[in-house]
Amino acid sequence: MSKMSKKRKWDDDYVRYWFTCTTEVDGTQRPQCVLCNSIFSNADLRPSKLSDHFNRQHGGVGGHDLNSLKHMPAPSDRSETLKAFGVASHEDALLQASYQFAYLCAKEKNPHTIAEKLVKPCALEIAQIVLGPDAQKKLQQVPLSDDVIHSRIDEMSQDILQQVLEDIQASPLKVGIQLAETTDMGDCSQLMAFVRYIKEREIIEEFLFCEPLQLTMKGKDVFNLFRDFFLKHKIAFDVCGSVCT
């Protein structure tokens, strides 16, 4: 069995060749040219390779202040490094596309697997026919697996909840809460809560939470679940002006 090749590490001094560092999920670091966005393998993460590309492809880019570039912070996180150079990150666009599809998938209540099994293959075929192989190659990089879509939806859900909680605490007037009991497809009781509050002089109504009623649907069980949610998110009860069912 052949030994695994040693992974090379990024050095901040490599910015002199106008390269930044991209870090993959497994921690592998790869150099990317900020001038042409070309991404190289981890094996190319060495001065001789980077210098060769810099000189051959970009002619040394005479006239640029490489000394100031050398002292510019170059964190290993790709998006932050590119922002420091004032260069838009291709990875940011891929990430945004992934979140946008996850949002539409949740909005239309489609199964998460539809992205990987149907939408992406169709999009790749369309890109190949209409835009060509280069566009297809870029589109191929958009992460749309079942697990990715699931995690994206969870992240957006948590972000929206956090925004609503912040709005509740910032409301100039006490908020109104409406509770509703329902039953899901598994015949399990669920408690839904909706909130109404003031934001920028407008009345806002938002969904707050949906939690299963583990015991009974008695008033004390509903209250305990409602109380636990507020305690979990460190919201004082005195922000509530009214609660109705």
From TrEMBL:
Official protein name in the record? Transposon-derived Buster3 transposase-like protein
Native source species: Mustela putorius furo (European domestic ferret)
